[in-house]
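Posting this for the archive.
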Amino acid sequence: MARTLDTPRPASPAAERPASGRRFRQSAGRQHHAGPLTYVLLVLAAAVSLFPLYWNVVAASHTGERVVAAPAPLLPGPRLFDNLTFAWNQVDMGEALVNTTIVASLVAVSTVLFSTLAGFAFAKLPFRGRTMLLSLVVATMTIPPQLSVIPLYRIVTDLGWVDQLQSVVLPSLVAAFGVFFMRQFLVEALPVELVEAARMDGAHSLRVIWHVVFPVARPAMAVLGMLVFVQSWNDFFWPFIALTPDGNPTLQVALAGLGAGNHSVDHAIVLTGALISTVPLLLVFAFLGKHIVGGITAGAVKS
């Protein structure tokens, strides 16, 4: 009986678990706070990112001679509003701003719509030649846009669209990058069972796209729309060929004729125009940034 009482009992599974595992479980629900070094690095990154915008404001508030002088000015000057007025009136910046808003909005909406539809087809709809067609779409991304300028300009000339906004909008209605981007997202984010369940419930193709594909693809659509809008807003090469500064320009085309004098270029006026073209993008991110980030994070969290 004594030997039975002295027999050591087997250790419980909880006692055999390592202490590190217990500490990990205890700290799993805690909120980790950033240290001082993290805040220092974030402040430095923010300062480096914002400095070009700050110096743009500084340069727009000085004269052209002071901007190119050494050392460069680091504090704002007294000529900001004078330069803004001169730049706004020299090339009709108001019309260029409206034209750029129209072009960038139409291009962003059409690219997101057509890229989502094509991406869904390549990702979830089985059809003959799908792999070959997708390869051809991706291959077009390797072609430099300069190669298509001459035939595209001849088409625009034959249609009588020179110096018209449709000459800039129509060639950019869809992008190969957008199709590939949406296809890659929908391959992982959209289960085939969800599409099949909708079809079993009697939903036709348009209903499946509207009620199943678009809600799932909303985060990627927000990101793609943001990228395309910024790219179209800052596009210069093709709009400079199809449009003229004195006719129907976009902002980048108007900036090409800004600050030009008899024998020199006023860099302060040019940077003032660049500041005017940057402010609308900042306002868009200020008002819609929360919704864009919210859509991205919503798509990144799995239930």
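The CA atoms of residues 56 and 236 lie 20 Å apart. The mean pLDDT is 83.
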